[in-house]
Amino acid sequence: MYEPEIMRTGERKSRRMRSAKALSLAQGGFTLIELMIVISIIFILVGMAAGMYSRHVRTAREAVLKQDLQTMRSAIDEYTMDKLQAPQSMSDLVDAHYLREVPTDPFTNQKDWVAHFGDTLLSPEQSGVGIDDVHSNSDQSGTDGTPYNTW
Protein backbone atom coordinates (compact mmCIF):
# COMPACT_ATOMS: atom_id res chain seq x y z
CA MET A 1 0.00 0.00 0.00
CA TYR A 2 2.85 2.28 0.51
CA GLU A 3 4.04 1.92 -3.07
CA PRO A 4 0.98 3.39 -4.78
CA GLU A 5 1.29 6.51 -2.66
CA ILE A 6 4.81 7.08 -3.94
CA MET A 7 3.64 6.70 -7.51
CA ARG A 8 0.88 9.15 -6.94
CA THR A 9 3.27 11.64 -5.47
CA GLY A 10 5.65 11.07 -8.38
CA GLU A 11 2.82 11.50 -10.86
CA ARG A 12 1.81 14.74 -9.19
CA LYS A 13 5.36 16.08 -9.38
CA SER A 14 5.62 14.98 -13.02
CA ARG A 15 2.35 16.69 -13.88
CA ARG A 16 3.40 19.86 -12.09
CA MET A 17 6.69 19.90 -13.94
CA ARG A 18 5.01 19.40 -17.31
CA SER A 19 2.48 22.17 -16.69
CA ALA A 20 5.25 24.44 -15.42
CA LYS A 21 7.26 23.83 -18.61
CA ALA A 22 4.22 24.50 -20.77
CA LEU A 23 3.50 27.67 -18.82
CA SER A 24 7.08 28.89 -19.10
CA LEU A 25 7.10 28.22 -22.85
CA ALA A 26 3.83 30.08 -23.29
CA GLN A 27 5.11 33.06 -21.34
CA GLY A 28 8.53 33.01 -22.96
CA GLY A 29 7.31 34.22 -26.42
CA PHE A 30 9.04 33.67 -29.72
CA THR A 31 12.73 33.61 -30.43
CA LEU A 32 14.29 36.17 -32.73
CA ILE A 33 14.83 33.64 -35.51
CA GLU A 34 11.16 32.59 -35.42
CA LEU A 35 10.06 36.21 -35.72
CA MET A 36 12.48 36.83 -38.59
CA ILE A 37 11.16 33.81 -40.49
CA VAL A 38 7.54 34.88 -40.06
CA ILE A 39 8.30 38.46 -41.11
CA SER A 40 10.23 37.20 -44.16
CA ILE A 41 7.28 35.07 -45.22
CA ILE A 42 4.94 38.03 -44.81
CA PHE A 43 7.21 40.23 -46.98
CA ILE A 44 7.35 37.58 -49.68
CA LEU A 45 3.55 37.30 -49.75
CA VAL A 46 3.10 41.08 -49.84
CA GLY A 47 5.59 41.34 -52.71
CA MET A 48 3.72 38.71 -54.69
CA ALA A 49 0.38 40.42 -54.05
CA ALA A 50 1.74 43.83 -55.10
CA GLY A 51 3.05 42.39 -58.36
CA MET A 52 -0.27 40.74 -59.14
CA TYR A 53 -2.15 43.94 -58.26
CA SER A 54 -0.07 46.12 -60.57
CA ARG A 55 -0.44 43.58 -63.40
CA HIS A 56 -4.23 43.59 -62.98
CA VAL A 57 -4.36 47.39 -62.91
CA ARG A 58 -2.35 47.55 -66.16
CA THR A 59 -4.65 44.98 -67.80
CA ALA A 60 -7.70 46.97 -66.71
CA ARG A 61 -6.23 50.20 -68.11
CA GLU A 62 -5.53 48.46 -71.41
CA ALA A 63 -9.16 47.30 -71.57
CA VAL A 64 -10.35 50.87 -70.94
CA LEU A 65 -8.01 52.19 -73.63
CA LYS A 66 -9.30 49.67 -76.19
CA GLN A 67 -12.91 50.52 -75.35
CA ASP A 68 -12.30 54.29 -75.51
CA LEU A 69 -10.53 54.00 -78.87
CA GLN A 70 -13.34 51.85 -80.25
CA THR A 71 -15.97 54.33 -79.03
CA MET A 72 -14.17 57.36 -80.47
CA ARG A 73 -13.51 55.67 -83.80
CA SER A 74 -17.14 54.67 -84.04
CA ALA A 75 -18.21 58.24 -83.24
CA ILE A 76 -15.83 59.59 -85.91
CA ASP A 77 -17.31 57.23 -88.51
CA GLU A 78 -20.90 58.05 -87.53
CA TYR A 79 -20.20 61.79 -87.59
CA THR A 80 -18.56 61.49 -91.00
CA MET A 81 -21.44 59.47 -92.47
CA ASP A 82 -24.14 61.74 -90.99
CA LYS A 83 -22.54 65.11 -91.76
CA LEU A 84 -20.80 63.98 -94.97
CA GLN A 85 -17.67 65.60 -93.62
CA ALA A 86 -15.08 64.31 -91.18
CA PRO A 87 -14.73 66.12 -87.83
CA GLN A 88 -11.94 68.67 -87.65
CA SER A 89 -11.35 68.19 -83.90
CA MET A 90 -12.41 65.90 -81.08
CA SER A 91 -14.54 68.70 -79.68
CA ASP A 92 -16.67 68.55 -82.86
CA LEU A 93 -17.81 65.10 -81.74
CA VAL A 94 -18.81 66.46 -78.34
CA ASP A 95 -20.54 69.54 -79.79
CA ALA A 96 -22.57 67.38 -82.19
CA HIS A 97 -23.47 65.01 -79.30
CA TYR A 98 -21.72 61.96 -80.73
CA LEU A 99 -19.72 61.80 -77.49
CA ARG A 100 -20.77 63.06 -74.10
CA GLU A 101 -17.19 64.11 -73.44
CA VAL A 102 -13.75 63.30 -74.75
CA PRO A 103 -12.53 60.39 -72.60
CA THR A 104 -9.38 60.59 -70.53
CA ASP A 105 -6.46 58.48 -71.71
CA PRO A 106 -5.93 55.89 -68.93
CA PHE A 107 -2.13 55.97 -69.34
CA THR A 108 -1.49 59.71 -69.60
CA ASN A 109 -4.48 60.70 -67.41
CA GLN A 110 -5.22 63.54 -69.82
CA LYS A 111 -7.46 64.16 -72.81
CA ASP A 112 -4.48 64.38 -75.13
CA TRP A 113 -5.44 61.96 -77.88
CA VAL A 114 -3.48 62.07 -81.12
CA ALA A 115 -5.88 62.63 -83.99
CA HIS A 116 -4.91 61.30 -87.40
CA PHE A 117 -5.98 63.49 -90.28
CA GLY A 118 -6.48 61.61 -93.50
CA ASP A 119 -7.91 62.17 -96.90
CA THR A 120 -9.94 58.98 -97.11
CA LEU A 121 -13.60 59.28 -97.95
CA LEU A 122 -16.14 56.97 -96.35
CA SER A 123 -18.82 57.67 -98.94
CA PRO A 124 -18.97 59.23 -102.41
CA GLU A 125 -21.14 62.06 -101.07
CA GLN A 126 -18.55 63.09 -98.48
CA SER A 127 -17.41 66.64 -99.16
CA GLY A 128 -14.62 67.24 -96.64
CA VAL A 129 -11.78 65.40 -95.03
CA GLY A 130 -10.55 65.57 -91.45
CA ILE A 131 -9.98 63.21 -88.53
CA ASP A 132 -10.26 59.60 -89.59
CA ASP A 133 -8.51 57.87 -86.67
CA VAL A 134 -7.34 58.48 -83.13
CA HIS A 135 -4.50 57.06 -81.02
CA SER A 136 -3.19 57.27 -77.47
CA ASN A 137 -0.48 59.82 -76.72
CA SER A 138 1.30 57.40 -74.35
CA ASP A 139 4.82 56.29 -75.17
CA GLN A 140 4.48 53.13 -73.05
CA SER A 141 4.17 49.64 -74.48
CA GLY A 142 1.38 47.19 -73.80
CA THR A 143 1.58 43.73 -72.32
CA ASP A 144 1.80 42.36 -75.85
CA GLY A 145 4.86 44.54 -76.60
CA THR A 146 3.22 47.01 -78.99
CA PRO A 147 3.25 50.72 -78.09
CA TYR A 148 -0.10 52.15 -77.02
CA ASN A 149 0.20 54.96 -79.56
CA THR A 150 -0.08 52.40 -82.37
CA TRP A 151 -3.30 50.81 -81.14
Which helices and strands appear, and what pairs or packs with what?
Blueprint: H1 2-28, H2 32-83, H3 90-95, E1 114-118, E2 130-135
Name the features:
mainly alpha, about 5% strand, about 150 residues, two-stranded antiparallel ribbon, 2 strands, 3 helices
Q: List the domain count as a whole number.
A: 1
Number of strands: 2
The order of strands across the largest sheet is 1-2
Strand content: 5-15%
Low-confidence stretches at least 5 residues in length (pLDDT < 50)? none
Number of helices: 3
Q: How many whole angstroms does the radius of gyration measure?
A: 35 Å
Overall pLDDT score: 86
Order of helices and strands: HHHEE
**3D shape:** rod-shaped
**The biggest beta sheet, please?**
2 strands, antiparallel
Description:
This protein is mainly alpha-helical. It has one domain (33-150). Helices cover 56% and strands 7% of the residues. The protein is built from three helices and two strands. Strands 1-2 form a two-stranded antiparallel sheet. The longest helix is centred in the middle third of the chain and has 52 residues, at 32-83. It is rod-shaped. The model has no long low-confidence stretch (mean pLDDT 86).
Short description:
The chain is 56% helix and 7% strand. By secondary structure, the protein is mainly alpha-helical.
